[in-house]
Amino acid sequence: VQLQAFGGGLVQAGGSLTLSCAASGRTCSSCHMAWFRQVSGKEREFVAAIASPFSGSGETTYYADVGKGRFTITRDNAKNTLFLLMSDLNPEDTAVYYCAATDSDRVPRSPKKYHYWGQGTLVTVSS
User: Which among 19, 32, 44, 46 could bridge 109 via Cys, Cβ 3.0 to 4.6 Å?
Assistant: First the structure.
């Protein structure tokens, strides 16, 4: 599975941005998918995840506290695309955002549990 993230850019505090992640190669409709972010010098941080539509609970979503109420993760399985809608952005959201996918049975929050990664897209929020 190859993942390609895009949609990052410069946005003012309080603004919104939508990230996309296109999957190619092997179909990943059975994968759980997630977004992580990383600031230079810090560990990669879980942002949000969405379960496979074929999981027992359907496309259940999971969020880190930093994104609750502001971020929404969705997926379009027909187009093999993952999205992260971000609103009310603040400078602390500045990071490189990565999309990831996993064949794990459960939806993990640890980056170590994800098998496939996109190249990252930079989001910069100015104050």
Answer: 46
